[in-house]
Specification:
The chain has 14 helices and no strands. By secondary structure, it is mainly alpha-helical. It comes from Eucampia antarctica.
Length: 333
Amino acid sequence: MWFLKKNKKSQSIPDLLTCSMQSASSDCEKEEIPSISLETEAKHDNNKEEISLSSDPPEKPFFLMEWAKDIEPEELKRVQNALSLNQQLQENSAEDNNIVAQSESLIHPKCLRRDSFIKQPSLKHLFETRDSLSEEQILELSEDNALEKGRSLNQQGLKMATGGDYLHAIGIWIQAIQILVTFYGEFHSDVALIMNNMGIAYGKMNLYEEAKEMLQESLFVRKELYGQHHVSVAASLHSIGNLLLSFGDMKESLDAHLEAIAIRTRVLGPNHKEVAFSHNGIGHAYYDMKKYNEAYDEFAEALRISSIAGLPLDHHVIEDSRNGLEMLEELIS
C-alpha cells in the first residue's frame, strides 16, 4: 500500500485532505491516493505487505446510516414501469426468469450470491401491533390522499428518530406502512423506504433480528421495483452492511458494501458522495477484520472523493474517515 512504502514518508491527515482538494495540476497530484478499482476491492493481493500487530485496534463508534426521506416525483413513473415489467416476468417460465435473473447480476463475482441479503416481505404482523390503525381508520382515507398521509407519517417518524425516540418513530412508521400497503400493496417505493428506516431504528435499539428482517425486506421490494442496478438498492445494501458490521459479521458486511459500491460507481460515477460513503463503510469492515492496509486506503479514498463531491468539512463521513486514518497511523507508526 502507498503509505507503507519504504523510505517514503506518509502524508499527514491535514495534508492529505488539502491535497485531495487541489486541482489535478497541482503538486499534490504526485502524492495522490490511487483510486481503488472494483477488482482490487474484490480480492486481496497476496504480494502486498501485511501489517502484523500484537495488540488489538482501539475501539471505535460505528453505526453510520442515512435516514431515507422523500421519494422524488420522477421516480413514480419508473416504479410503474418496473411493476409492468415484473408482471411480464411473472408470466414467463421459471427457466426464463432464471435467465433474466442471471443477466441482471452485477459484474462483481461476489454479487452472484447476494440472495442471502434478501427476504420477501411479510408485513401482516405490522397490522397486529398496539400501534396499528384500525380498519375503519384506514378506510376513512381515499386512494387520492393515502400516499400523502403515508409520507406525512414517514416525516413524523423521521423527526422522532433523528431525536433518538426510535420506539415512537417505529410506531408511526407501522401506521404509514399499513396505509400504503392497504391502498398500493407491498411493492411500493414508499413502503421500501419506510421499511429501510424501521430497520435502521431497530438497529440503533440493538434489536438485530428485527433490524435485519426489515432491511432485507426493503431490499427485496426495491430489487423487484427497480432491478439490480439502482441507487435505492445500493442504499439498502449499505444499511445492511452497516448493520452486519455493528453486530460483528464482518465478512458479510464487506460483501454488502462491495455490492453497494459496484452499483453506485456504475450508476453515479466514481466521484459521487455516495461512493465515498461506500468506501467509508468498506474501510470499517477491513478495519474490524484487522486488514489495516486496505482499511487505510478505503478511508483515504472516502476522504478524497468527499472533497471532490463538495461535502462540507464537518460532514460525518469526512470526520469519520479522518478519525479512521488517524487511528491507523497510530497503529502502524
